[in-house]
């Protein structure tokens, strides 16, 4: 595979083009924000896919829509429809794919601006999904359009996809595209996902996730005579104290070499996401010993921790409690597992984006990894594409917050970085 990498003729003309398109790019972002693609449950996906698809068609792409047929969440009320635009160059390869999810989390409370109006104020566009990640979608589409308007043609092929459901795991979105060969080793060389990771940082990958549920079982008895029963809540308390006293200190000793941001997340962690047991909240008072207690745990693990070990540690804690107390009965269920992924810091896509950041922002790029997962897992684990990174405008700490915004300047800078990257990875004619 050839990847030119070096500065291409016409780069400064393209950068001027990007600058001159700031208003158009902002207007497109506002249009995207005004379609509330709230997930869950996954509203208005078709209109948003069409808005992106129509713009891509206007900009010279072949456009196709991919509905996630066969996925249970693809329903008549909430269809899961993805859009892909392809602009073929002289050669099918190298192929650079920009992928952005267009679903957004619910607005939530605490907004001072209308979350779905696309308000512009003080050089910022406000709204749910501005940073995460509709500004990224606008930036990648206009980055490539600037090259075309400057009268240049990319030699390799560029693709843009708008996908669904990243916020709920991406199974009908990027995972579906990867499983069906749209994003796949052998056709896709580089993938850039414009998540809001700050405009001068490149995200190489993310840590692993293990969600599991522990249920402890006791024996019901009258609350005035608890000695005749076995409390499932007491058993859960024992497990929680083993997590605190045994597991957490062990996790505190481990550290990853991945450049995870914030640095506190370079150690593994475990969180209790929820706990429920005994008398249900809001019901009438009944004096009973709880015969069932369940809790859901969120264990984030490092690339250096094999998943089998992560799971075995939990089993061992539970088994140890059972050995000590023959009344200790439990069930462990795996809810979701995502293995860590990381693109090599020396990969061509990392090098190209890094050089472009230096040229556009006059800053050394920071290589980071994300504490949480995003669609990169599907690109690498299912699509087997080796070169995938997160790079885009918007501040990570504003994602999912009230008054989420993206600065127009940052969106334009990111578009410049993406334009130079596309020219250098694909070559121009
Ligand atoms: Zn996102």
Plain-language structure description:
With 429 residues, the chain is of the alpha/beta class. It has 2 domains: 11-206 and 340-426, Aminopeptidase; 208-338, Alpha-Beta Plaits. Helix content is 33%, strand content 22%. It has helices at residues 11-20, 22-33, 45-58, 130-149, 174-179, 232-252, 307-324, 348-361, 376-382, 408-426; strands spanning 62-67, 81-87, 95-101, 120-121, 124-126, 157-163, 190-193, 201-206, 208-217, 269-277, 292-301, 329-338, 341-342, 366-370, 387-390, 405-407. Strands 1-2-6-3-7-15 form a 6-stranded mixed β-sheet, with helices on both faces. A 4-stranded antiparallel β-sheet has the order 10-11-9-12, with helices on one face. It has a 3-stranded antiparallel β-sheet with strand order 4-5-16. The mean pLDDT is 96. The site of zinc ion has 6 residues, from helix 4. Residues 101, 132-133, 166, 195, 374 line the site of zinc ion.
Which structural category fits the helices and strands? alpha/beta
Uncertain ranges: none
The CATH architecture of the largest domain would be 3-Layer(aba) Sandwich
**What sequence of helices (H) and strands (E) makes up the elements?**
HHHEEEEEHEHEEEHEEHEEHEHEEH
Number of strands: 16
In total, how many domains does the architecture comprise? Answer: 2
Give a quick account of the main beta sheet: strands, pairing sense, barrel closure: 6 strands, mixed
Evaluate the radius of gyration: 24 Å
At the fourth CATH level, what is the homologous superfamily of the largest domain? Zn peptidases
In the CATH scheme, the class of the largest domain would be Alpha Beta
Enumerate how many helices there are, as a single number. Answer: 10
Binned, the helix content reads 25-40%
Q: Average pLDDT across residues?
A: 96
Report the β-strand fraction as a percent range: 15-25%
Q: Compounds present?
A: zinc ion
Strand line-up of the largest beta sheet: 1-2-6-3-7-15
Taking the alpha carbons of the first and last residues, their distance comes to 18 Å
């Amino acid at each position: 595979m050839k990847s030119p990498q070096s500065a291409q003729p016409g780069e400064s003309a393209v950068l001027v083009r990007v600058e001159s398109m700031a208003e158009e790019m902002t207007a497109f972002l506002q249009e995207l924000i005004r379609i509330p693609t709230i997930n869950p449950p996954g509203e208005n996906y078709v209109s948003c896919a069409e808005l992106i698809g129509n713009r891509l068609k206007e900009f010279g792409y072949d456009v196709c829509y991919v509905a996630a047929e066969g996925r249970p969440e693809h329903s008549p009320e909430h269809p899961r429809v993805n859009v892909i635009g392809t602009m073929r160059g002289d050669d099918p390869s190298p192929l650079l794919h920009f992928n952005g999810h267009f679903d957004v989390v619910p607005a939530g409370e605490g907004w001072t601006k209308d979350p779905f109006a696309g308000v512009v104020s003080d050089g910022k566009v406000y709204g749910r999904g501005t940073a995460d990640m509709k500004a990224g979608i606008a930036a990648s589409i206009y980055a490539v359009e600037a090259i075309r308007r400057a009268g240049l043609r990319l030699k390799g092929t560029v693709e843009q996809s708008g996908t669904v459901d990243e916020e709920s795991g991406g199974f009908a979105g990027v995972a579906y595209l990867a499983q069906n060969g749209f994003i796949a080793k052998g056709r896709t060389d580089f993938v850039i996902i414009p998540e809001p990771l700050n405009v001068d940082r490149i995200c190489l990958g993310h840590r692993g996730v293990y969600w599991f549920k522990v249920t402890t079982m006791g024996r019901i008895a009258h609350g005035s005579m608890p000695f005749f029963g076995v409390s499932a809540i007491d058993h859960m308390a024992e497990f929680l104290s083993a997590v605190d006293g045994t597991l957490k200190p062990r996790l505190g000793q481990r550290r990853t070499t991945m450049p995870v941001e914030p640095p506190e997340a370079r150690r593994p962690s475990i969180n209790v996401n929820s706990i429920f047991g005994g008398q249900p909240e809001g019901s009438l008072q009944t004096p009973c010993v709880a015969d069932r207690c369940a809790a859901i745990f969120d264990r984030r693990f490092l690339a250096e921790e094999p998943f089998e070990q992560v799971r075995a540690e939990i089993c061992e804690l539970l088994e140890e409690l059972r050995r000590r107390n023959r009344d200790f009965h439990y069930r462990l269920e795996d809810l979701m597992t995502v293995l860590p992924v990381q693109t090599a810091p020396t990969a061509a896509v990392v090098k190209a984006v890094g050089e472009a950041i230096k040229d556009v922002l006059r800053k050394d790029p920071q290589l980071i990894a994300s504490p949480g997962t995003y669609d990169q897992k599907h690109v690498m684990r299912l699509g087997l594409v080796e070169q995938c990174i997160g790079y885009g405008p918007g501040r990570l700490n504003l994602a999912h917050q009230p008054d989420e915004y993206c600065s127009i300047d940052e969106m334009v800078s990111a578009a410049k970085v993406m334009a130079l990257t596309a020219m250098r990875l694909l070559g121009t004619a």
